[in-house]
């Protein structure tokens, strides 16, 4: 988290001493004094999470938040004026002139008490936070079959395992090249996930995504808990699937939960429906969780590459080696070229909901988003469908789309996902997903969606909120259901990046 405000807080928060804007923490009426002991007043009504100028900003001058430029003023801005889309514009381009600096001494992450959680220790030493049966269709044609089997088997085995879940998707047929490769790699990675005590992969038989080729993507020593079935090859496909699920349940139902150190957790971090407070409350609070897991020797996975555009140098400065720096730069450049190939500007973000919540430019959104990585050194870069391999922070290739990126986090091995939001969303994913509200109003209004109120940091401070969130993270890893799990929100989305026949 950037240096906190030097002013006593009243209605707004200055994130860094270099900032020339402040962010409102509540709806502000015209004439409201923004800070105790200051004469600065809001010139107009401003909503929560929006920016107000602290000093005169000339047209063409940089607007500074988090201590970094978030764009340039398109008009002269007086102190107290609202700073948003009408007078602030991005300067983000497709260019990337990145600089490498050898690793230097870094500030130590904030110390937190050591924790354990009760997880399922798998034969290869990985630890799951759930003991479930997952049914993965190779192709959309058998998605409903998979869902029907999951429903029947889930009722049949409700007392023996944590659940039976089918993850439908529309792909696997008529795909070519890298596009087919993405689907295959993603499903193969999910099939190896430690939260699945057993996996049934169901194929149709005639699809591009053939069962045999998919299974070949799974290491031989990770196939013992996997069964496969081609629906066209059997007379009663439903009965055959149920028999295989029964077999899988019998093999894993007696697995015990065991106390393990926090280093066995793989933490995925994600933001969606962000607002102007996300980078001040929820994201840095999740950064504390990343620090705690990494300090214990665990893995943290950060993705949403288009939502680090404008803040990528901050991550690159944390690379542990020149090789990791080069891989990070290559990944960011590749993603920018992906936009350019499709005729889209790299700054085609933030979303309408982000803008309504006070975020103006992609630079601002990205500088807030990278707070989720805390102070953890960047140790590795993984491409889409690959598994995080090293303790520390891994940067994962995936787009910003909530469902696609959260599925990719799960495929990378995340056994729990921390999902921050300023606007709210009901979505859930294969790994338990905790929804963390950036503001208390959202947490109070959407109690059926939100698991934790990060708006509390504005009153209780980060230390108290971090202790409470870490307690919830370990309880969830030990079996406490998330709101998304209670609501049966469990879905996947695969990145469609190529030609369909």
TrEMBL record:
It is an enzyme of class 4 (lyase). The keyword Lyase applies. Keywords: Hydrolase, Lyase. It holds the Pfam family GD_AH_second. CDD domains: SAF_AH_GD. Its EC number is 4.2.1.7. Residues 19-89 form the SAF domain. One of its GO terms (biological process) is D-galacturonate catabolic process. One of its GO terms (molecular function) is altronate dehydratase activity. It comes from the Bacteria. InterPro entries: GD_AH_C (IPR048332), GD_AH_second (IPR007392), SAF (IPR013974), SAF_UxaA/GarD (IPR044144), UxaA_altronate/galactarate_dh (IPR052172). Belongs to the UxaA family. This is Altronate hydrolase. It comes from Sphingopyxis italica. The lineage of its organism: Bacteria, Pseudomonadati, Pseudomonadota, Alphaproteobacteria, Sphingomonadales.
